[in-house]
Every structure is written in C-alpha cells, then in structure tokens.
Amino acid sequence: MIYIPDQFRISDREMLFRIMRENSFATLITCSGKEPMVAHIPVTVNEANDLLQAHVARADPIWQEFSPDREVMFIFHGPHHYVSPSWYTAHPSVPTWNYAVVHASGLPTIIDDHGNIEKMLRRLVDEHESPSETPWRMDLPVEYLQSMIDAAVAFEVQITSIQGKFKLSQNRCHADRSKVIAVLKRVGSDSASRLAALMAQILKS
Description:
Blueprint: E1 9-10, H1 13-22, E2 25-31, E3 36-42, E4 44-46, E5 51-57, E6 72-83, E7 96-111, H2 114-129, H3 142-150, E8 152-167, H4 174-187, H5 190-203
Antiparallel strand pairs: 1-8, 2-3, 2-6, 4-5, 5-8, 6-7, 7-8
Helix pairs in contact: 4-5
C-alpha cells in the first residue's frame, strides 16, 4: 500500500498506462512469510488486456515465491527531480522531490510453454529495438535460443489494482508551479524535461 494524499492521486487510466509503457523497466516486489523479495526487470505492458508480462533468471529465487493466492507488485518509476525552495515565489519553504510513480498489483502465473515464452521475448525485443535504425532481430541458432529460454522463468500478471501517485507541486500556488516547470526546462536533463512536460499537462499550467 502507498500513502497518496488526494491531491496527488491520479486515476486516469490512459495516463497511468502511459507512465507504465514509457518507464517499463520496473521493480517487482513479492512477499513471503520470510522477507520481501525484489527484482528489477523489463516489463511488456498490454493495456488492452490489463496484462503485464516479464521474465527473471531461473537462478533468481524470487519466482519460487509466486503463489496463485498471493499478489505481487510492479512499481513503475516515472520522471522525478529535486525541487529547491529557491525555485518558489512563496516563502518560507523547504526542499522536496517531485515525481510520478505507478503501482500495479496482481496474481502471477508462470508461463511454461516454450512457444509462448519465445513469442513474449520476441515482442519485448522488437519493442525496444524498434527505435533503432538497424534493429537487431532475434535470429538465433535454435539450440542457443532454447538454452536461453530454459535459463529464464517467464510469467504474466493480470492487473487487479493500479495506483498512481503524481507529486507535481499540486500543493503550491500557480506562480510556484509555473516557476518549477520553467526551472526544470532550463535544467534540461531527460528526467527534468519529462517531469516539466508532465507537470504542464497535469496542472494545465
């Protein structure tokens, strides 16, 4: 569970899935009776079916904690950046951090069929290779490909709950929000620029 003040809660499905697609290297968390287990893995996001597909190394014990009656959670980290009080017009103020994050939970199902695993992996490769001028294709020797598939555990998660927390200066006055956006644009890093764009869209500044 994540603490979300009402002003930071985002329920727009299209926006939530956009953050998931654009930040699909996610954190997977599962809890057993012992301790939480974590993996950082690329995820294929299927919005039409509310389905997430991923894989971990077979040597990673996290998949052995999967249970048909215990949910796992994916955390998708969107753009984020430090915000200085010097960026505000209203004072006194303290430093903070603006960010967007989506939590998606559901029950995991392991995929055993090699054919389906291969299709899933090809979709993942094609998705990330498509921006390249010369995309790499998964044209591998059959035995090598099978050995790689055998070394992985593929699974899918049917989303049962999804939460979005976008902390984007909604608690500040319009002048402060506008100035934060302007400074983030000047910072110019990838995360700062994407955060500025998201703030402008969400806050309609």
